[in-house]
Each structure stands twice: as C-alpha cells, then as structure tokens.
Amino acid sequence: MLRSTAFRSVSLGLVAATGVLATTFASTASAGETTYAPPPNYGPAPTYAPPPNYGPAPTYAPPPNYGPAPAPTYAAPPPQQYYGPGQPTYAPPPPPSYGYNYNPNAMDIGRPGGTIAGVLGFGGYGSSGFGLGVEGGYSLPSHVYIGGNFTYFADTFGAYLFEVQGGYDLAVIPRAPVLIRPYAGLGYEHISFTSCGTPTLSLTCSSAGGGSFLISLGAVGSYFFTRNWFAGVDLRVDIVTATGGYTSFDGFAMGGYKF
Fold it and tell me: Of the candidates 145, 138, 141, 137, which has an alpha carbon nearest to the alpha carbon of residue 169?
C-alpha cells in the first residue's frame, strides 16, 4: 500500500515537470526566438550530355628520308698576289709572260695601256737631217700595238712625215724590264728644199718639193726605270715610193711614259 502511494506520487511529479518544461519552451519560442524555413526543393540533379566523339587519333606519315648529309664544298680561294720587293710574299711571282721569266722589278711592263714618247735623232732624205718628233699608241691585251708618229727633219732638205704603225710587244731578255717592239708603218712624207744660184749682184733662190707615200719597217727598244717611265731607241727604215724615191735609215733616242 505504501509502495503504490509512492509510485503514484512520482508519476504525478514527472507529469507536472513535463508540463512545466513544455510551458517554458512555448513561452520562450513565443518570446522571439528565430525559426527557420525548411530547405528549398532543388529538384532532381541535372543530367549532362555525353562527351563529343572526336574519332580516332590522327596518324602521321613517317619523317622524310634525307639521306646522309652531303660533304660541304668550298669555293677555290682567290689567286694570291705578289706584292713586290720588301712586301710579304704570299705566292711566287706571276707565271712567265711572253715566253720568259721577268724580273719582279719590271712590274708588268707588257701590260695593256697607252704610251706616249718624244723622239730625237737623225734621218730623212740622205739620212743626214736632224729629226724631232712624237709618237704614241696603245698596247692591247693580246700585246698587239697600234699607234703612229710624226717626225720633222731639218736639213738642206726639210721634210716631215706622219704614219700609222702596227707592232707587237715582246720581252725577250729574261728577268729584265726591257720591252722590244718590232713594227711596220704606212704614211706620207713631204720634202721641200731651196736652191740658190751663184751670188752676183743679187741672190736668186728657188724652192721645190713634193710628197709621197712611204713604208716604214723598224723596231723600238725600251728600258723601264719604273712601272711607267722608260727610255730607249727607235730604229727604222723609211722607203719612199714616189718615182725617183729613196730609202732613209733613221735612228732616234726616245723617252716616254706608259699609262
């Protein structure tokens, strides 16, 4: 009997406590405590399309066959030059020219170029006249010379001539700056003279003269002191073709310049 009374007292106490707690919780919620809405409904998860089909991976051709690398080819070096005496010698002197080995000091006297020279000597009609003149021309790369000369002779018989010449340059003395040029010429010569009678009360003189074509055969020998300046001799035979013509032997000293 006592146990039933005690159990009933405990049960009544628990019910009373539960009611107090519920009343307290309800009063607290109504006093301003925050309430949260339920989470939104996002619906089902999205579905994604399958990845594109790119097809099989490309195939590449094998690399080209270039074969073994060719051996490099090099151009021939430029010809070495000879710089003359007192300079470094990188090559022997130039090969023989005109059939001989010339002295390096000759400095290529047989090169192409123009020449001009003055002449002074004797010749003309009877080979006794004092001669003065000038000559010049050009030497081609083939060593052919083309030129001419003008000469005046002053003596009892005065004469002047001019002609064109053709020759060939030779250097026949080994290792020496000497140039020999045989030549032939074709031109014109005019002769004039004055004849005076025996003096009496007056002196009577008469002049006469004439011209004619001539042919010359000769040779020039020149020694080059430098690459340009030279001196030498000019020996020739002048054959006058006029009726009653004559032949003269002329000799001249000469000096000149080669360009």
Answer: 145
Residue 255's SS3 state is strand
Strands 129-139 and 144-154: antiparallel
Residue with tokens 């002191």: 225
Phi, then psi, of 9 in degrees rounded to 5: -65, -40
Residues contacting 94, CB < 8 A, separation 6+ = 82, 108
For β-strands 178-196 and 157-168, DSSP reports them as: antiparallel
Task: Give the three-class secondary structure for 84.
Answer: coil
Query: In order of start, what are the domains of the chain with their CATH numbers?
Result: 118-258 (2.40.160.20)
Please enumerate in sequence order all residues whose Cβ is within 8 A of that of 203, keeping only pairs 6 or more positions apart, or say none. Answer: 196, 197
pLDDT tens-digit series, residues 68-86: 888 888 887 766 555 555 5
- The amino acid at residue 96 is P
